[in-house]
Write a structure and sequence with these properties.
CATH architecture of chain A: 2-Layer Sandwich
Shape of chain A: flat
Distance between the termini of chain A: 9 Å
Structural class of chain B: mainly alpha
Distance between the termini of chain B: 62 Å
Oligomer: heterodimer
Number of helices of chain B: 21
Radius of gyration of chain B: 24 Å
Number of domains of chain A: 1
CATH superfamily of chain A: Dimeric alpha+beta barrel
Strand content of chain A: 25-35%
Chain lengths: 123, 432
């Protein structure tokens, strides 16, 4: 099954995290990415820019609206997405547990309903 | 909803279990529940879909009711039921495939092991089923109901009654949990050695939950924790090498053994100290001792073994004629350090009173209540124990007030009547 591991955490303020801690985090994410890849379960891994860089787009109310910032302000923000292909929830939880973001935030483990693969939506 | 009602009709016949039947009916009922749980576990594990497995099994039971009376009962009824249910699951899957317009993901869309089931050698996958019911991704409050519903085949209505919930509310919770098992991809398999202890602990917790509701109060108090007893005994057959599983089975058996003596002929509550050991069930007590011996051989102590050992010491009064309070005190102290809880703390205070006198018991209790704070205020056993201790210390006025606060938290009619009687005695002494 395909699962999205959605990483959420409180966004640090500018300069809140020392360069040293950032380097450690980068190293941890590097090791995590390599582990996912070598296990053959990784489909995609993106760590996102802070929500200050977000733009939200909608046509829900008729015309086009482009809005600065995320569609909903939350204390914990979406910070990264890892798509994995694993046999079951236990395996997905196992990978979520190893995600460095779990040390300071939450990893939401969400199964895929349908995915566009090889030219068609599959389930 | 549909799943549940059809599973209910197809499963073991409603009636016995939650309302106590005679021994012959009970053993027939247990056999039916055993076979229902085994078949469902096997089908669900193969299909990865509990609700679909229930539907298929219900269908098989229905067909059995239609054909067996005319054609005779097959040599192996379970194999017959399994074959019919398996075919039904396979048909279902095929027709779903035909209707589909999108390409299939073979890894996801095959009924992985359905054809691997050897119908003549029906393996037991009930442990996997119990692990699924108690999975961390399943809401804690629905784990016990889910086990009773799937492993033992109790209907949503029966489970709802046990939890004092309307049947439709319980049915909704069960349906949601089953959908979640499928949608989230909770696996029907034994977890890795590293994860197993934690996962087994939540299975034990859920079985213990069934034991607690039996003693819990309700409009009609039940006499015997038969559902919990059966779940615990099933678990002990599945994992005989786990000392805590054995401990939990022993604990529930020992409590069940005393159930007949818990209420007297006129329906009045009888506290443990006043119970007539002749009315305890020696068969259950000896089964419990077997479990405790097997658990002890492992040499690892745990919460349920300790609780069972405590119950065993109480039951020893049946043969020795006296209660070994110092040993009980030691066991309670260890229990309170291994698995501290409000309940075990209150019991420790009560036993302290037996060994060191009611003043020492009250000190222990009040220290516990001060530490527990607000959460302890509504804990009925703490209130009742405090009333008894004040009563014994001759602090009658305080005792009467404490009895009143205990009574207001007691929902079991027999126990409430008992506490009211004690309060009235104390209050008469106060007047005199």
């Amino acid at each position: 099954m395909r699962y999205a591991l959605l990483m959420h955490y409180r966004e640090p303020a500018e300069g809140e995290i020392s360069e040293e801690a950032l380097a450690e985090a980068r190293e941890a994410f590097g090791a995590y990415g390599r582990a996912l890849e070598s296990a053959g379960v990784l489909l995609l891994a993106d760590v996102l820019q802070p929500s200050a860089a977000t733009t939200s787009v909608t046509l829900r109310d008729g015309g086009l609206q482009v809005q600065d910032g995320p569609f909903a302000e939350t204390k914990e923000a979406l910070a990264g997405i890892f798509m994995v292909e694993v046999p079951d929830l236990d395996a997905a939880i196992g990978w979520a547990e190893k995600c460095p973001g779990a040390q300071w935030g939450f990893i939401e483990v969400r199964p895929t309903a349908t995915a566009f693969v090889d030219g068609a939506w599959t389930r | 909803m549909d799943t549940l009602t059809s599973a209910g009709e197809g499963g073991p016949q409603a009636g016995p279990g939650l309302d106590e039947p005679g021994p012959a009916v009970r053993s027939a009922d247990l056999a039916a529940r055993d076979s229902y749980g085994r078949l469902l576990a096997l089908l669900a594990a193969s299909a990865g879909d509990l609700a679909a497995a229930e539907d298929a099994l219900a269908d098989a039971f229905e067909r059995a009711l239609r054909t067996w009376p005319a054609q005779g009962v097959p040599g192996s009824p379970d194999a017959w039921l399994l074959t019919v249910a398996r075919n039904r699951l396979r048909d279902e899957w095929k027709s779903a495939r035909v209707q589909r317009t999108t390409p299939l993901d073979p890894g996801r869309d095959t009924l992985a092991h359905i054809d691997d089931i050897d119908v003549d050698a029906i393996p037991d996958r009930r442990l996997e089923l119990m692990l699924v019911c108690a999975h961390p991704a399943i809401d804690r409050t629905v784990r016990t109901p889910l086990m009773l519903n799937t492993v033992l085949g109790f209907t949503a209505e029966q489970v709802g009654r046990a939890f004092s919930l309307p049947p439709s509310a319980m049915a909704n919770r069960l349906v949601r949990a089953k959908q979640r098992i499928k949608a989230a991809g909770i696996p029907f398999r034994i977890p890795d050695r590293a994860d197993l202890p934690v996962r087994m602990a939540s299975v034990l917790e859920a079985v213990y939950g069934a034991y607690v509701i039996d003693w819990a109060t309700g409009p009609q108090a039940r006499q015997l924790p038969s559902e919990a007893l059966h779940l615990a005994e099933v678990l002990a057959t599945l994992v005989p090498g786990d000392p805590e599983v054995r401990g939990l089975a022993a604990l529930i058996e020992l409590s069940a053994a005393r159930a007949p003596a818990r209420v007297d002929a006129s329906g009045r509550f009888v506290p443990l100290a006043d119970q007539d050991p002749a009315r305890w069930d020696p068969r259950l007590i000896s089964r419990a001792h077997e479990h405790l011996r097997a658990a002890h051989a492992h040499g690892t102590l745990g919460r349920f073994q300790l609780e069972a050992a405590i119950q065993a010491v109480h039951c020893a009064r049946g043969t020795d004629g006296t209660t070994d309070w110092p040993t009980l005190l030691t066991l309670h102290r260890i229990l309170q350090s291994v698995a501290p809880s409000l309940g075990s703390g209150v019991a420790l205070a009560a036993v302290t009173a037996e060994v060191d006198g009611p003043a020492a018991g009250l000190d222990t209790l009040d220290a516990l209540l001060a530490e527990a704070g607000q959460s302890a205020r509504l804990f009925q056993p703490a209130r009742a124990t405090r009333a008894h201790l004040l009563d014994r210390l001759g602090r009658t006025q305080e005792a009467v007030a404490a009895y009143d606060s205990a009574i207001s938290l007691t929902h079991d009619p027999a126990e409430r009547q008992y506490l009211t009687h004690r309060r009235d005695c104390a209050s008469r002494r106060d007047d005199a």
